[in-house]
Amino acid sequence: MTSTFPSRRALVGATLTAALLAGVGAPAAFAAAPPPRTAVATPAVPPLDRAALRAAISDLDHPQATAAQLRVGGKAGSWYGTAGVADRRTGAPVRPDDTFRAGSVTKAFVATAVLQLSAEGRVDLDRPVQDYLPGLLPRSYAPVKVSQLLDHTSGLPNEVGGPEIKTPEQILEHRYDRWTPKKIVATLPDGPMKFTPGTKQEYRGMNYVLAALLVEKVTGRPYGKVIGQRILRPLGLRHTSFPGDDPKIHGPHVHGYLAMSDGTLRDATEYDQSEAWGEGELISTTGDLERFITALFAPGKLLPKATLDKMFTLPGSEVRMVDGSPARFGMGLQTVTVNGVTLWGKTGERYGYNSGVFATRDLRRTVAYSWTPTHRDMSQQEMVLRIANAVTKPVPPAVPAGR
Hints:
The chain contains twelve helices and 14 strands. The protein has 403 residues and is an alpha+beta fold. Helix 1 packs across helix 12, helix 2 runs antiparallel to helix 12 and helix 3 packs across helix 8.
């Protein structure tokens, strides 16, 4: 999109993710190691440091935010805490069942649906997406395998056109813009592709717009309905939904806010998510996200083991991110190693919201968080880095009495 202010696909969330995974600006205790090419045994997770968990979400001035919540679970212990308010107008506290916009966490649900169809023999991951969606992408594009959409090695070029957004005020001016999936795909130029598919990795929301369209083409149903039937209802995820072009969040929810150019805050909760669609429209809770990732990582619950392994498998060692750093995305999941603990999951971001869900593959530790930053910029990494450190850092030894 043509924009000098982070817009819907300017990928602040991806930049934030890159900062988290690379350890940029991290505290000394935070050490993000290059992830393994395939999942390996994770060192035992440390006991929970509840004081560190509380401190990680309590500082709502660095960066500026109005609320935060963190849910830690798994075999090694559990904790849930909140900070701030769900609604500045009423002063209502954040409650466990308050929903929020989960942004790109949507991609993990879409990838799961595609992989389910693959396990059923209805989708061939090695077949070009152009075969499933003929005429949708420009003819000049090289064949892009379905698997290359899921692990962000498609090489699709940057989108062009769309509204120019330079200020936070302009973000809200476009909050009711209505998009269709085909209109989103139409922002792809005729070419050239950014790189030969499969040779590099670049996080792109467009990959999952196409993946969701693939789900619809194969099943003949809206992708959100398919995920509802295959994932939400079987797992009892009652607070998770796909709003489509409904700009409101219904029921108890956490409000998101944006700081305007003069520093005042405006409520940005109401926003038409059709512009994000299959790449980022999800609404959920930390409890639902924890239940989802727990089921996902259990072989046979949502995916057979051989198919699930694809989510934990990175591209070959010769494939690197476009900035030269190691590849870090499997099919639908991203990975990070913090304080020696390897986590897999997905981050998400929408205007006024930032979230994520991660777990060790053995489910000894699960992490689901959501908070409401007022500025859409790189300052958001401070909160995410604090959370990442708090859920993986060993508890400091007790100081003997008398010292």
